[in-house]
Amino acid sequence: MHEVHTRMQRGLELRAHEGADLGALAAAAAELWAAIHAHLAPLVGSIGASAIYRSSLGLESAQFPSLAMARSSATPADDFVSLGKALATASPADALLAHGALLTRFCSQLARLVGAALAERVLAPLVPPLDVGASGVAAAVAPQT
Fold first, then answer.
1. E strand or H helix that includes residue 29
2. Are 109 and 52 in contact (CB under 8 A)?
3. Could you tell me the end-to-end alpha-carbon distance of the chain, in angstroms, rounded to an integer?
4. Which end of the chain, N or C, is surrounded by fewer C-beta atoms within 10 Å?
């Protein structure tokens, strides 16, 4: 399960490294959460997926002020827009750190709920492919928007 959330986070980090502005990173984070919700809802229901996300957000908000600015909304899509706006108020490094903590917490809670193997299988389609560069080191490829 660790590899799944690490590689999902790595896709955002690569965008930052390639010079994406904070608005683009925040939008990419919101898109990732919408995709996670869409993949998870058939397994635990839309309400269940939202509950895991909101619980994770609440638990990490104490540590990361930018996450505390994200608000629960009437719909999951609005939740993720709110998250994107909240992340856009932080520095790129802080936004990535906060997002990584949120993603780690979410994946941990999901694994406790449905088991690590099933959680990994459900989220695997969202993991960016690996690209082996000239150095021979594999890196996640950031999806293009």
1. helix 22-61
2. yes
3. 26
4. C
